[in-house]
Design a protein that fits this description.
This protein is mainly alpha-helical. Helices cover 53% and strands 0% of the residues. The two termini are 26 Å apart.
């Protein structure tokens, strides 16, 4: 992993990124395997005569299947007396730490840019993100300017949130006391059913494969939009936050982490993590 395609050496600043990618993918595969194991357990219970709901309740949590694999495939294992048992993951983590030490002490070629270039980059990113949001909302571009039109007005001064609401999936977006201009559950569907071009693209084809491709393309656009929005939050939201602080913010209630830690009213942030994810 330290050799380039042209058989040269990878720069120290880029070497550890490949180790990080291997670790992330490996951990994702281990987790997905545990999910599959739990699903197989649920299926066995269903085959024995239980309903799907009863089988879900009787089955172990995903963590029960994941825990035995963590020390073997996800973290650095330790044996008796604190001695490390050699595994591929422990070697990767040791080498990763060694590479990080080299990367942090090796001088790199400097890059000089001006504040005007940074401002231009941010303005361009804002324009591109706005256009991408318009595509996700199925808004048509203006004939002359090419800019998306018809963005619904957000009632910024009337946004409401209930910090005591702990329902799964709840966020300020679903708070009924906020006078939203559109119904978020049906707005996009209404556009698809009323616009001939959108209706043909999404509903005109009888092929399930065509609809699946359109849905996959839309999800890819949504992922790209969230990525750009994350960069804008980091660069334009005042003092840049640590990555763990930024990625640890939750605007809706989740099953794993519980109630959200960011609320709209009074700009309250109730919890964050500086060092872990």
């Amino acid at each position: 992993m330290g050799v380039r395609p042209d058989y040269g050496w990878v720069e120290p600043a880029n070497y550890t990124q490949r180790f990080a990618a291997v670790l992330k993918i490996a951990r994702a595969l281990v987790y997905s395997h545990s999910v599959i194991e739990r699903e197989e357990q649920v299926r066995r219970y269903v085959d024995e005569g239980l309903t799907r709901e009863a089988a879900e309740a009787a089955s172990d949590e995903v963590f029960a299947f994941l825990d035995p694999k963590m020390t073997r495939f996800m973290t650095r294992p330790f044996g008796q007396g604190g001695q490390r048992a050699p595994t591929p993951v422990s070697w990767i983590l040791d080498t990763f730490a060694y590479g990080k030490a080299i990367a942090s002490t090796t001088p790199a070629e400097g890059r000089v840019f001006r504040m005007s270039q940074l401002r231009d980059m941010l303005h361009t990113l804002i324009d591109e993100t706005r256009d991408l949001m318009g595509q996700l909302l199925f808004l048509s571009p203006h004939e002359e300017t090419g800019e998306r039109e018809g963005f619904p007005a957000i009632p910024w001064g009337q946004l409401r949130d209930n910090p005591s609401e702990s329902r799964l999936g709840h966020s300020f977006v679903r708070d009924e006391s906020t006078p939203w201009p559109l119904d978020g559950k049906t707005a996009l569907l209404s556009r698809v059913t009323t616009d001939p071009a959108l209706k043909k693209a999404w509903l005109g084809s009888r092929s399930q494969l065509s609809r699946s491709k359109a849905s996959d393309a839309y999800r890819a656009q949504a992922d790209e939009f969230r990525g750009r929005l994350l960069v804008l939050m980091h660069m334009t939201g005042g003092q840049p936050a640590r990555s763990t602080e930024l990625l640890g913010l939750r605007v809706c209630n989740t099953k794993q982490a519980g109630i959200r830690n960011v609320f709209i009213e009074h700009d309250m942030v109730t919890g964050w993590n500086r060092s872990g994810t």
